[in-house]
Specification:
This protein is an all-alpha fold. 76% of the residues lie in helices and 0% in strands.
Length: 289
């Protein structure tokens, strides 16, 4: 082989080895970052288990909280209230968030889109407590009192921009050939979106819904001005309702050790609720309908 060819081959080998070294270095950094994040999560979970596992019993799930200074009781009213308020908030946010995401992804030339995207980005960056103030002005004041419904609206306002941007991102990944095939069959554009595009992106849409629900499920600040909290079980969303984040916040700043243990237990239950929702969403996204 001529010397020039040998030199080019040597240069290629050296460049390839340098690329391999850089790739291994970056993979090591990614692995290190992932391991650190996982370690921090395990440490927090282990500490919460050590502090709150003793308060997890049947009474915790079947009884309401006890008066200040008394030990025992549970957080039944907060667990049920969390399911009601967060569920109503998701139902309120879903149609608006999905509609905004569909408009952004499927009608990119619509004149409203620049303003809608700016509004969505602005709302995503707003502190959660401002959504509570907005719900207080729009819902609490006209109704003349706090309620679980106003808390649901506050969490719904929080979920809408997350749903909109996640829906836009997921639908943008759907191949354009699917849309072209539907249009070639003579289907109207709205039917193509509902019958072809959305089912194709089902797994991503469920993930986005889960992300919005998880973000709202741990928020206490918007509920301070809306749901307000209640020491007793309340099923009527038109009255003040308790939630796990609200009760966790109230117990954490209290001077009672028993309430501190129940606050850690509330955090564990909230973590378990979000984890269970994640598993159910993954199972649902893999089913064939």
């Amino acid at each position: 082989m001529p010397p020039a060819n040998n030199l080019r081959s040597l240069e290629k080998n050296l460049a390839l080895r340098a690329r391999y070294r850089k790739e291994r270095f970056m993979m090591a950094l990614v692995g290190l970052g992932t391991g650190l994040a996982f370690l921090i999560l395990l440490l927090v979970l282990a500490y919460a288990l050590a502090q709150g596992a003793g308060a997890l019993n049947l009474d915790f799930f079947l009884k309401d909280m006890r008066p200040p200074g008394e030990t025992g009781g549970g957080l039944r009213q907060a667990i049920v209230g969390t399911l009601i308020v967060d569920g109503l908030g998701l139902l309120i946010a879903l149609p608006f968030g999905l509609a905004a995401g569909i408009l952004l992804a499927e009608y990119p030339d619509h004149p409203v889109n620049p303003y809608l995207r700016l509004l969505s980005d602005t709302l995503n960056g707003m502190p959660a407590i401002l959504f509570g103030l907005l719900a207080f002005i729009l819902i609490v004041k006209p109704m003349g009192g706090f309620s679980g419904l106003s808390g649901a609206f506050a969490l719904g306002f929080l979920m809408i921009p997350i749903l909109a941007r996640s829906t836009e991102g997921v639908l943008s990944l759907v191949p354009k050939e699917i849309r072209e095939a539907g249009l070639a069959l003579g289907l109207p554009r709205w039917r193509v979106i509902l019958s072809l595009v959305l089912p194709t992106a089902r797994a991503g849409l469920i993930t986005g819904i889960l992300l919005a629900f998880a973000r709202a499920a741990g928020e206490a600040a918007p509920l301070l001005f809306t749901a307000f909290g209640s020491p007793l079980l309340e099923l009527n969303p038109l009255k003040p309702m308790d939630t796990l984040p609200l009760r966790l916040f109230a117990f954490a700043i209290s001077p009672y050790e028993d309430w501190h243990r129940q606050a850690w237990a509330a955090g564990l239950v909230l973590f378990g609720l979000i984890t269970l929702t994640s598993l159910l969403a993954r199972w649902a996204s893999r089913r064939r309908f």
